């Protein structure tokens, strides 16, 4: 009989709780302050609704630019990812191992940067406007899609590929014949998911001048024209709803959950191609007026020769401190967001609530999700002032959408057979929850929270742009002042932090 | 008699589906009884009524002199403590270890807080490990159930049922989702345990060969009624009534 004493679950739980409490203390979370200033928030909300209906007419053009950036960026990025992923996959042996490792490392580095930072960098190269935004969304999509796709290729059984190459088929053709059909459904589903998130991401790119509805949003927010902000947000919500329902419908078709005839398929492909062409053809041309080879050279040089003094500087102004603050904002925000999501998920589950009520409660996270996260930052800052606490609130509210969705899926997917068996043994209901349901839910909840933490870490690193603490403010200042060595040092710090958290969460996932 | 079932009826969908229609029989202590019959004869409903998962519309179920069908709340739970059930689909919590699954059977005997915190104590843990050893899974105690084979899962479920020290073991198609060889091994284990502990077993089976080979007595259900009650080694002709309405299910 083997007897391994394993650390019981509640020790991990307490450790996580203590860490979160420390993060909350570090970021100066103060519920009292939020409560005392609740009128400010209520006031802003009251002024947003009803929105300024007349302003709608002005919103359509920038909204179209936003959709345009996300469609073109997603399509191009996903396509490039499909070309690069086979080179990064271990099983195919397309390139020698060292090259593969370098490629994977580059993708990982690219993945560490939030879309907003990529967009800011792109505006230095391509000038202000939608072209820079499209470039940023393309890069961002490329990095994430490459990672997802090579993971898929590695996970797919390689028997057919090996058989074809053994018969003398060139690797490229063997890939198209044997591997591509296997990964296609998941690849398309991932691309559609990217499209959904990219609509929200590109809605804020205007904040750094990269086109779309974001410029308008930040302008109206800073002029405190909340009626117009309300109109923009409502239009954005409608756009997000449209894209999400179209994407949900297409995802059901590509994953085979819904049957589609040949004619319908052709119509969908034709419509997608038309949409892509319409979006791509109307993107404004880049403006190279301010870009020069020297500027590009300086940018890259900053990454290669960063400001090491700043990198290793201690104290409250140093890089370590700022990164720690960013991580603490992400951690505390994720924890608060998860706590907010649990009741919403229970209310939105078709298992526990009447169907109509559940559908109504599902609208809340969807509405919350459609608002770009910087908008929350700019609203909360009116109540709680600049600082890390505003960042925590922002991250918390942003987390609600996705985490609630994943929680609801876990609750709806519960297996109730063990519940019935325990009931037949005479186990009381509360203990049945403890022994039959929690073991099923906790791993799903845990992975949802970990995934969101990973996303939040990136979002927290741009919150500084609106004064909500963390590494964002110094990074954007450095970039705007062309202090590339400082920006390089911050970028390297960011990459290291994201990489470290990736390693940690991979280890936690295994448990 | 140890278990007395009298005139038990149960219908679903406001009386449109009649699962049991006045079924009645009695089982002596230590007997291994198989309930046979075609699909839809009411076998599963019978087990769900016998273990208290469902209420019958009419009739009575008396277990060791107590009315199970009229018991509610605490009294019912204390009667359920004397029952163990194993299921066709195992009904285990898939992503926790075999040991943790067996230990859940100890929960009804514990106070709320020790149970909620999972403080089972060394005695219960030792007992759970001994039971896993008994069903041949000593080395799988810490393995998550989802990594076990079907036969191993059913062994875990048997250990969980035995953890209750049951007087009556109910088995609802225990081998229907297993291959014949594994199924036979599971039934041999069940029979072995039944003999050694003097357990009373009521097993549902649509597999007549298994039912004949392992039980002392057959009860044939058809359309919710008992149409055969007698020896296990009866010739096929005696069982025609059991499979009458559903000839395609006949052996």
Q: How would you name the CATH homologous superfamily of the largest domain in chain A?
A: MetI-like
Largest sheet of chain A: none
The fraction of residues in strands of chain A falls at: under 5%
CATH class of the largest domain in chain B, named: Alpha Beta
Regarding CATH, which class of the largest domain in chain A?
Mainly Alpha
CATH superfamily of the largest domain in chain B: P-loop containing nucleotide triphosphate hydrolases
CATH topology of the largest domain in chain B: Rossmann fold
What structural category characterises the helix and strand content of chain B? Answer: alpha/beta
Question: Percentage of helical residues of chain B?
Answer: 25-40%
Unreliable spans of chain B: 246-251
What's the number of structural domains of chain B?
Answer: 2
What is the secondary structure topology, with strand pairs?
The complex is a heterodimer of chains A (511) and B (251).
Chain A: H1 9-26, H2 31-36, H3 38-48, H4 56-88, H5 97-111, H6 115-126, H7 130-155, H8 159-166, H9 171-205, H10 213-222, H11 226-254, H12 262-281, H13 293-304, H14 308-311, H15 319-348, H16 355-370, H17 373-384, H18 388-412, H19 417-424, H20 429-463, H21 472-480, H22 484-510
Chain B: E1 3-12, E2 17-27, E3 32-36, H1 43-50, E4 58-63, E5 66-67, H2 73-80, E6 83-86, H3 98-103, H4 112-117, H5 121-134, H6 150-163, E7 168-172, H7 180-197, E8 200-205, H8 208-214, E9 217-222, E10 225-231
Parallel strand pairs in B: 3-8, 3-9, 6-7, 7-8
Antiparallel strand pairs in B: 1-2, 1-4, 4-5, 9-10
Helix pairs in contact in B: 5-6, 6-7
